Amino acid sequence: xxxxxxxxxxxxxxxxxxxxxxxxxxxxxxxxxxxxxxxxxxxxxxxxxxxxxxxxxxxxxxxxxxxxxxxxxxxxxxxxxxxxxxxxxxxxxxxxxxxxxxxxxxxxxxxxxxxxxxxxxxxxxxxxxxxxxxxxxxxxxxxxxxxxxxxxxxxxxxxxxxxxxxxxxxxxxxxxxxxxxxxxxxxxxxxxxxxxxxxxxxxxxxxxxxxxxxxxxxxxxxxxxxxxxxxxxxxxxxxxxxxxxxxxxxxxxxxxxxxxxxxxxxxxxxxxxxxxxxxxxxxxxxxxxxxxxxxxxxxxxxxxxxxxxxxxxxxxxxxxxxxxxxxxxxxxxxxxxxxxxxxxxxxxxxxxxxxxxxxxxxxxxxxxxxxxxxxxxxxxxxxxxxxxxxxxxxxxxxxxxxxxxxxxxxxxxxxxxxxxxxxxxxxxxxxxxxxxxxxxxxxxxxxxxxxxxxxxxxxxxxxxxxxxxxxxxxxxxxxxxxxxxxxxxxxxxxxxxxxxxxxxxxxxxxxxxxxxxxxxxxxxxxxxxxxxxxxxxxxxxxxxxxxxxxxxxxxxxxxxxxxxxxxxxxxxxxxxxxxxxxxxxxxxxxxxxxxxxxxxxxxxxxxxxxxxxxxxxxxxxxxxxxxxxxxxxxxxxxxxxxxxxxxxxxxxxxxxxxxxxxxxxxxxxxxxxxxxxxxxxxxxxxxxxxxxxxxxxxxxxxxxxxxxxxxxxxxxxxxxxx
Length: 722
Hints:
Blueprint: E1 7-9, H1 19-22, H2 60-63, H3 71-79, H4 86-93, E2 99-103, H5 109-122, E3 131-135, H6 138-149, H7 156-161, E4 163-166, H8 167-177, E5 183-184, H9 189-201, H10 210-222, H11 235-254, E6 256-257, H12 259-272, H13 274-283, E7 286-289, H14 297-307, E8 313-317, H15 332-335, H16 337-340, E9 345-349, E10 351-356, H17 357-367, E11 379-382, E12 389-391, H18 396-412, E13 421-425, H19 432-441, E14 445-447, H20 461-471, H21 476-482, H22 490-501, H23 521-537, H24 542-560, H25 567-584, H26 590-609, E15 619-623, H27 624-627, E16 632-637, H28 648-651, H29 665-684, E17 687-694, E18 698-699, E19 702-703, H30 708-713
Parallel strand pairs: 2-8, 2-9, 3-4, 3-7, 5-6, 7-8, 10-11, 12-17, 13-15, 13-16, 14-15, 16-17
Antiparallel strand pairs: 1-14, 18-19
Helix pairs in contact: 4-5, 5-6, 8-12, 9-10, 12-13, 12-14, 17-29, 18-19, 20-21, 20-23, 21-22, 24-25
């Protein structure tokens, strides 16, 4: 596992019970049975199963003769168990000048980076202090440093001289050396708390979520600007800009900086102080960047400045794994490397040491349909016995039950441990059913999402709160959660209700709202109508109640209040609300559904407060994005269906104003689909030995097909949209 924050869940002991563990949807079978998996996805009967070619297996012992001047270094590596293949040797031997190392999934890129650092020191006589290794995680930087110290012939002093840091750590050290003493507040609880307070003070609590506002600010900085450069064309844009400028003022007054400031200020500093830049260029003569495909604009420009004097840049990455477009990562930097650095050498690490030939072969067939990529076909180091398997459950809830049953069956048969499994999904909403199935089944799992549980998400919670209020009209927490849907300031409205209710409590305190100062007569009538509506909700089936709320007021509220200014946000909210309907459809009574939801929320709170253990014998439940860089013995990819993967947003990318600015509608969709295909590729290539791919036949109440990416891997032509 990576160093990301997770929550852990352990099943309750026999005889114990909690609301989440005991609540079951009406009519649910217990226990669920696994679906029979097939060797081909639905519709691919008779098609050839993709297989990767096997690598020839020769390593440095055969490829570097004893007569070679540098044979001593490779013999020493071999004594430590490191036998490099032909492409790896070529990358390690590279001397001066730019080098693009295309490192396919599982191809041993860390071994290459570390071995090249040792080669520069021991064979080429480079000063260890002249070597800079830049990574994207503290864990990766520490691992490289440790592995360099273990290299043959490298002394402790030499290993200590090599600089191995993350982008932010390296440039923070630079700022500190120039007198910057600001406190780094990072992306934790403090920025969220400050932003939440400002939203409340400015009366914008119901307009923006703190994490959304902070993400907009981050994007502006990573593109080289800041809050001052944000647009002001609409009321919503002006409010957001004012909020972010105020937040930036607070940081300046409090002597704080965030992670983006570290990069932005460093870039400005190097441009303003050319002598400082020259000193860094003289010091670091050999620069190596790991995960180069993940660089954003600021990181790319900083690296170009550092190597502009000597050009000794080794960029290691895989364009097929560029999946962080939402964080500013740009594939054009790795795709255009040879144009930006004329004369650059290119080495392709194309032997996968992680996965079986059938898993590597499937990955090859998934990704080869992308057009904007460096052509490469991975070879497999091992054939492997197991082949990828496929299931087609009826819905996402059936999928979750089938996957849970599959995992339990594999564990109970002795073939696997729970800790061998990772369940990967495209979006947070896609995890709702899987999370619930794992809780109900008692299977231990680690959940890597750090935000709210599905039912507590901002778009979902007001509807759940209306259901709670229908059951208990004096539920003040639920009342506060839905109050803004009546176009009333939450803080002001609740203060008024509590003040009037305290001396003479009413059965339904929400009626006090009609006397709030400043309300027009039509607003008072809407409040009375809503109260009557909420009363009757408890007599409906939960899914029907949610549909009625959406139709009668909620969808219009989201639109008219400017909560959904962009197509992307609209689709994300609609997806969440459709998922809520799907979940509620398993119940016949509102009280049962609310009890189920509240039980899950209580369990989730327990999980967030529990100690995390990455090495625990527990299933890993995470997004595909968070899985990149990790590997697992057994992977289950859920939601491999159209509108999930690829996500419906990719099919509507032409409607996103800020997506690939200046591109044609067709190019926007093509670009979005290529990133979605890269996500599918990353998911497939996380598996070492076993891979199960699930493609629900129905999603959000509509029939859907097996993902076009999986179809194409078997030579099928997708005939739907785009």
